[in-house]
Amino acid sequence: MTAFASATAFADAVPFAAIVEETAAHVPAREALLDAAMGPGRTRKSSEAIRAGRLPAEGLAFSAMRPDGSLVGTVRLWNITAGSKDGATVPALLLGPLAVAPDTQGTGLGSLLMRHAIAEAAAHGHGAIILVGDPEYYARFGFLAEKTAGLAMPGPFEPRRLVALELVEGALDGAQGVIAPTGRFALEETAAVGLAA
Fold first, then answer.
1. Measured between alpha carbons, how far is 165 from 32 in angstroms, rounded to an integer?
2. Is the pTM higher than 0.85?
3. Do 98 and 110 form a contact (C-beta atoms < 8 A)?
4. Which CATH architecture has domain 7-196?
5. Are 177 and 152 in contact (CB under 8 A)?
6. Which of 32, 75, 98, 190 has the highest count of CB atoms within 10 angstroms of its CB?
7. Which residue range or ranges hold the N-acetyltransferase domain (predicted)?
8. Are 148 and 92 in contact (CB under 8 A)?
């Protein structure tokens, strides 16, 4: 198993913001930040088709908050299957979207969010993280296209931009097929809350 730094190891890396677990109160500001950072076309991406109607993986949605309570960054991870091997599905996580407020770009906040998300995913016992993004940027975190050679996204995608990081060595070896969502549906969570009330 590959060693990953504790998520708390990065706590002082960006002094103007703290990374916390996302709450429902963060969601409106998160959506506004994503609209500003990625534009209106963000909901038409293949990754969004996997996330639509689902909840992030348990304990793996994070917000970067300023001391005044304003949200300046976000990252989420989602439960998926990374195709299958030997007749069994391969569990993994899909990371994204990752975004920071325009006035914090170049401060290291995006890297801090990535490292925090990776460390937390490892701490939760997950085997691999997949994302669609700039391979040159994500290579610094250990993400490689070689790990996704047998995988595809539902809908159009650029194969070179489909990259993965194994948290457990060999987790994606031999995985082939289309990436699919496996996480909880948002409506199931809403119904569970209603029944508990």
1. 29
2. yes
3. yes
4. 3-Layer(aba) Sandwich (3.40)
5. yes
6. 75
7. 17-164
8. no
